[in-house]
Write a structure and sequence with these properties.
It contains 9 helices and 4 strands, in the order E-E-H-H-E-H-E-H-H-H-H-H-H. The chain is of the alpha+beta class and about 240 residues long.
Length: about 240
């Protein structure tokens, strides 16, 4: 079963599941976001989403964390069925920065809408329902650190049609990531709800950053998603 929990220092989320859990999510993401340039105005957001696909793929290949989880099979059941087997299943997991993960589940809303236009029964589409489950377990993990008002507002945005990451200034996600890393554990826990809403509703701080990015992009005649951050990420203590 796919699960999302907080890392020890609240720096990120630990996403865990067996091979099939992770592979199902990864396949759904690739199919829903489409090929490169299919939705060009969403290309920056698409690349950020593919960042988590990269981590999911490597985790499923045991390149990240490997855990052994009890599968409920008792010694008596093993004897009864005369099977030589393990009482534990292998689960794979990886850690992912919270602001980056929150942006990912928000951005997936746009791609679900785009993907759904070409499908008769999108609410029953296996790939859409897989992504919705992924969004729901992320939301459940955030519930423990949000106020009731923050949680209700965030889940309302996530479950509705309010999100819009078309031509999103993805550099804003980097800024939030870097600021979040530099907080204390206690500060991260207290601010996570506010960060989630900041990403969901695109407040004035986002608009200011986007305006700056657009100004720089116009000078170099570049697309805003191709503008690079100059700051490097420090070593992360999860």
């Amino acid at each position: 079963m796919l699960s999302v929990t907080h890392t020890e220092n609240f720096t990120g989320a630990r996403i865990s599941g067996d091979f099939w859990d992770l592979d199902e999510v990864n396949q759904a993401i690739y199919i829903v976001v489409g090929d490169e340039n299919k939705y060009y105005n969403w290309e920056g957001s698409r690349k950020r989403i593919l960042g988590i696909s990269y981590e999911i793929r490597h985790a499923s290949l045991a390149d990240r964390h490997v855990d052994f989880v009890g599968n409920g099979l008792s010694k008596e059941s093993i004897k009864q069925h005369q099977n030589v087997t393990s009482q534990k299943n292998i689960y794979y997991s990886f850690d992912y920065l919270w602001p980056e993960l929150i942006f990912t589940v928000i951005a997936l809303n746009d791609f679900i809408r785009l993907y759904s236009k070409d499908h008769l029964f999108p609410s029953l589409d296996v790939h859409v329902t897989t992504i919705r489950k992924f969004q729901s377990v992320v939301g459940e993990a955030l519930h423990s650190v949000m106020t009731t008002e923050e949680y209700d507002r965030f889940m309302s945005v996530l479950s509705g049609n309010e999100t819009n990451v078309q031509e999103y200034a993805i550099q804003f996600v980097d800024l939030l990531n870097l600021n979040y890393i530099n907080l204390t554990k206690e500060q991260r826990e207290k601010s996570l709800g506010m960060i989630a809403l900041k990403l969901a509703v695109q407040d004035k701080d986002y608009q200011e950053v986007r305006d700056q990015i657009i100004k720089s992009a116009n000078t170099t005649k570049s697309d805003i998603h191709k503008m690079l951050m100059t700051k490097e990420y420090p070593e992360i203590k999860w």
